[in-house]
Write a structure and sequence with these properties.
By secondary structure, this protein is an all-alpha fold. It has a domain of about 35 residues. The chain is built from 2 helices and no strands. The protein is elongated and about 60 Å long. Keywords: Cell membrane, Membrane, Protein transport, Translocation, Transmembrane, Transmembrane helix, Transport. One of its GO terms (cellular component) is plasma membrane.
């Protein structure tokens, strides 16, 4: 395949994805936001614990 054929296939596939995709409703958006905030909080707590343990053992 040449570049033009690859580009045309990409455009065709992108159009197909956009036809199938839907905008999330309010409840779905809130659930996704909660999960994201929870993930960021967990990563923050893990990082804090690592720094705290490092300072306690003198690193």
């Amino acid at each position: 395949m040449n570049v033009q054929e690859n580009f045309n296939k990409f455009i065709k596939d992108s159009k197909r994805v956009l036809k199938v995709a839907k905008k999330p409703d309010g409840a779905e958006y809130r659930e996704l936001a909660k999960i994201s905030v929870l993930g960021v909080a967990v990563i923050g707590v893990v990082g804090f614990v690592i720094v705290l343990l490092g300072s306690l053992i003198g690193l």
